[in-house]
């Protein structure tokens, strides 16, 4: 089977973060990159039923630690995962962007292209990171005419 450009990109990504190139890791990266919204472990389990729960948990944990994915919570408090931008690395996530929770379809979207204002905290506060959430209807649900 021929490798696609994405497969090679994912292999390079794993090499960059000193992770073994295993079929399950490559499949998780491929699945996550094919989605336009963050995804939860249970959602991944339902479509990747040949990867057991413990292995999937370990993959997600390793990816988060290495700065490949970041965790964002939905309206129910469930952890969802999205691919990081290239400037994240081990122990240093830089995913300071708006996370949009759709109140209808329950998807969580990373809105990376918005220009967010600088956050000026009072003296003495030293943030490691921040998370900004918005809730409402995503474009797909808005088109359906969902009434809030």
UniProtKB/TrEMBL annotation:
The keyword Cell inner membrane does not apply. Binds 1 zinc ion per subunit. Binds 1 Mn(2+) or Fe(2+) ion per subunit. Fe cation binds at residues 93, 95. Zn(2+) binds at residues 102, 105, 138, 141. One of its GO terms (molecular function) is zinc ion binding. Its cofactor is Zn(2+); Mn(2+); Fe(2+). Transmembrane segments: none annotated. GO terms for biological process: negative regulation of DNA-templated transcription; regulation of secondary metabolite biosynthetic process. InterPro entries: FUR, Fur_C, WH-like_DNA-bd_sf, WH_DNA-bd_sf. Keywords: DNA-binding, Iron, Metal-binding, Repressor, Transcription, Transcription regulation, Zinc. Belongs to the Fur family. This is Fur family transcriptional regulator, ferric uptake regulator.
């Amino acid at each position: 089977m021929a490798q696609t450009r994405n497969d090679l990109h994912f292999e390079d990504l794993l090499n960059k973060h000193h992770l073994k190139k295993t079929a399950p890791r490559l499949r998780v990266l491929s699945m996550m990159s094919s989605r336009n919204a963050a995804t939860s472990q249970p959602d991944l389990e339902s479509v990747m039923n040949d990867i057991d729960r413990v292995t999937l948990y370990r993959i997600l944990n390793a990816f988060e630690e290495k700065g490949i994915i970041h965790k964002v919570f939905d309206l129910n408090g469930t952890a969802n995962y999205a691919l990081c931008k290239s400037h994240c690395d081990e122990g240093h996530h830089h995913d300071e962007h708006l996370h949009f929770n759709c109140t209808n379809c329950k998807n969580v979207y990373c809105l990376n292209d918005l220009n967010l204002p600088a956050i000026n905290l009072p003296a003495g506060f030293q943030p490691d990171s921040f998370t900004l959430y918005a809730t409402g209807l995503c474009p797909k649900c808005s088109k359906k005419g969902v009434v809030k």
